[in-house]
Amino acid sequence: MSQAWSTRFETSLNPFIQEFNASIKFDKTLIIEDIDCSIAHARMLGQQHVITKEESLKIIKGLNEIKIDYQKGIFEPSFPSEDIHYAIENLLICKIGDLGKKLHTGRSRNDQVGTDIRIWLRKKINEIDALLFSFQKSLLKIAQQNINVLIPGYTHLQRAQPLSLSHHILAYLEMFQRDRDRLREVQNRVNISPLGAAALAGTKINIDRYMTAQELGFKTIYMNSIDAVSDRDFAIEFLSSSSLIMTHLSRLSEEIIFWVTDEFAFADLTDSCATGSSLMPQKKNPDVPELIRGKTGRVFGHLQGLLTTLKGLPLAYNKDLQEDKEPIFDTAKTVSDSLKAMTILFDEGLKFNDDNLMRSVENDFSNATDVADYLVNKGVAFREAYQIVGSIVMFCLSKKILFKELSLDEFKEYHNAFDEDIYENILPKNVVNSRNSVGGTSFSRVQEELLRWNNRLLN
Ligand code: ARG
Fold first, then answer.
1. Which of 156, 398, 407, 437 is flagged as catalytic?
2. With a 6 A CB cut-off, is 198 part of the ligand 1 pocket?
3. Residue 418 Cβ < 6 Å to ligand 1
4. Catalytic residue among 78, 272, 277, 444
5. Is the pTM of this model over 0.85?
6. How far apart are alpha carbons 175 and 244 in whole angstroms?
7. Which of 136, 94, 359 minimizes the C-alpha distance to 252?
8. Nearest 5°: phi and psi at 391?
9. Using CA atoms, how far apart are residues 179 and 155, in angstroms rounded to an integer?
10. 285 forms bridges with which residues in the sheet?
11. Per residue in 64-119, pLDDT tens?
12. Would residue 277 show up in a list of annotated catalytic residues for this protein?
């Protein structure tokens, strides 16, 4: 039952080797796709008069019954079936008798498994895209609520220039949009049918590859049968795009982790999204972003793993390719779960501490560029202004004061062009609002961007 190829062999497989060889434990994930693939194949065989219409309909009926049995929990594919393809074929033969043996005419498990995995992945990519979309909407909502909240902007993780919190959040919206665009690209290459390539060379059976491709919703078909059964580029591309999604989630996680420290105190975690310590009663831990950051490594590992699996493979199908499934399955689940968790975090888990954020930008030198730009506006060359402000910073540091605490006379000692309006110019909200270049953080630019995103995501 479990070995369709047994007549060529004199003895049966060593039991450990039999288990080692089997993929049923994980490729049973493809059960629905495998049945759909077989239904399309059987219908095509009937249409092409390879089998009679009646035979075709009986096979399809049997396959549909298997699907229902599975959905009702009556049938669960398992070892000792070698893989999902044999499991379904064997069950079909049990159900409808010898006619079931005609199903595999003109195809191989090589083109079959390639078809199944592409159908499965195509669905997952759509699901991940939908999750990215709802996460973007959650981010947009937070951005809309925080235009006037300021946050220190960093370079080298040193205070650089203040930002509108919305502008900071909108940066992530851009990143996740690129992820969605990339997935759409990948989908084009997932959505190509290898079915009918058979083992590697095509078949002499009078099949219609376009018919099965159309029934299974593929946009087009592989034009080279060898490439069709050996290509896993689409899987690598999926793992690579997923790695970038995880990279973006991980960078955001890292920021959240330090935002909620006592040292930063830019945000707090709500009880529904934070965890405690078994020992230290005061602790509130950011496990969710930490886990997302951690899971990123595992997705990178899958990408590296599959690249390595593929790099030495001669054409065409090699059993090594059975190793493509677990990384693909695990990556789809990890990316989906991470996106869901991060969306919940933004919907209910993160409360920005506006007062602390505002206070933090009032008490630093992140308006130093603006003091220099002030002089530039009065005709001083930028490099000269830069050096003057450097000296002012040094003076302030020695006195442990900020720019706003300098008297106008003290300012004037450094340059005569300083006037009363310098104080207005270095207020954080004016500092932010003055960065009005396209793509900058000024309130009106951010408003424009919010509107653009609103139209893009919500209309
Ligand atoms: N379980 C196999 C896989 O996942 C199916 C294809 C087997 N093909 C073969 N020629 N042994 O790749």
1. 156
2. no
3. no
4. 277
5. yes
6. 9
7. 136
8. -65, -40
9. 24
10. 275
11. 999 999 999 999 999 999 999 999 999 999 999 999 999 999 999 999 999 999 99
12. yes
Ligand 1: does its nearest atom lie under 6 Å from the Cβ of 369?
Answer: no
pLDDT of residue 1: 43
Question: Could you report the per-residue pLDDT of 155-203, keeping only the tens digit for each?
Answer: 999 999 999 999 999 999 999 999 999 999 999 999 999 999 999 999 9
The token pair at 176 is: 């996740």
Which residue matches tokens 């393809």?
85
Q: 354 CA distance to ligand 1 centroid (A)?
A: 57
The number of residues making up the chain comes to: 459
Ligand 1 centroid, distance to 31 Cα (angstroms): 15
Ligand 1 within 6 A of 67 CB?
A: no
In the numeric block, which tokens belong to residue 378?
């009065």
